[in-house]
Design brief:
Chain lengths: 297, 170
Amino acid sequence: MAPPNNRRPGFSRRAQYGLFISYMIAGGGVLVGAVLLLLSMFNPPAYAAVRGAFSELVTPIASGLDWTRRGISSVPGGISGYFGVRGENERLRAEVTANRVLVEQARSTTLENRRLRQLLKVRDRAADPVVAARLVYSTASSTRRFATLNAGSWQGVRPGQPVRGPNGLIGRIVEVSPNTARVLLIQDPESIVPVRRLRDGLPAIAAGRGDGLIEIRSAGAAQVLFEPGDAFVTSGTGGVFPPNIAVARVRRRSRDIAEAAPLASPDSLDFALVQQPFFPEAGPTTGGARAPEAAPR
Amino acid sequence: MSGSPFAGLGKADTSARARWLAPLSIVLGSLVTLAPFKASFPILPPFGLMMLLAWRLHRPDLLKPWAPVLLGFADDLVSGQPLGNSMLFWTVSCILIDVLDTRIVWRDFFQDWLLAAGAIGFCLIGGRLVAAPLGAHVDTVLLIQVLISIALFPVLSRFVSRLDGKRRAR
């Protein structure tokens, strides 16, 4: 192929200066980009407003695409459901009779549990749901793991609120615009969730690895052995995530640091549930009211 | 139409629609990330960057040297990378391609592909170093992403020349 010589301006001074100036502008753009990059590394939510405005524009498109995908992917299930409904009916009837005993047991256990908690004067904080909304798209080409929720500050979503699905923890809100919110998924390399082992309450930290898995680090004593199948739930430490939301399950036997698979997949999720932070940051009034109660006398 | 054998002579053999179609298709490439699946690791090729490189290598005269600054800004708003990332890396790689253009004179598609491969690798690895902490376990998936993107580049290059369309005299 012949050389593409289109950038050579010839002998015209005007064209030469024009080219020179456009390269100067490009160089200036590089500098501006570098400065913005430095600023956003030191203060990640610095450009939340700009991103939020753009996200307001594109999230309706993404919601439409998401709706289409759900519609198409529900077709095979609909067809098989239509033909399999008879067998399913019989199976479910058998399951109901089998579960009746279990439900009775669970009911009595719950009652007993409530009575014991009342005896202990444990104060339960119910984590109130803020809104149920869909995750519509994620940053699939980036090494960061953000997803966009199609509900925002007009629906009551605020930064810092935890997001969960039916199977477990999804992440937490980091940026909010009027109708959209950006969720930091627990798979993100900068996400950290305080957890405990379901079996014995061993405290640990679940940090995202960036490749879809989660790293479980023991928070306390050294030489902790993680067995495959160990399930971890949020511990409620730190006050952001409510306790007892499933987070991850260990895949391989290892010491001190184990890799685990998250239990909730943001992709197969129908609705994400945004909740209030477990303990909201103490304001001057609530902090003042609570202090004498907790102070040693 | 006129039947004259000299009908197309003297006219530019480039299409006028590329002026607006190129930026539009690059921004649309950036918006591919709106595809409705929620990836748990970086797997989607950076279509915005690949469209930019395809246009740049296909029509070197088309985009101004400062165009990647604005296009990169649009990409940063949706990509999830920190703002400024694509503005910086896209512009630097376009300037480097301009510099190399003055060195490599005769050119075939494999050299274009090599240039694009270098630019894709530079932008993705640079973005990884900037965005994710060094200890993150993203390097293997990032390598796979880079390889997929490089392998897909000829497809986008053909697509861009199809979009450009009227590059033959009529």
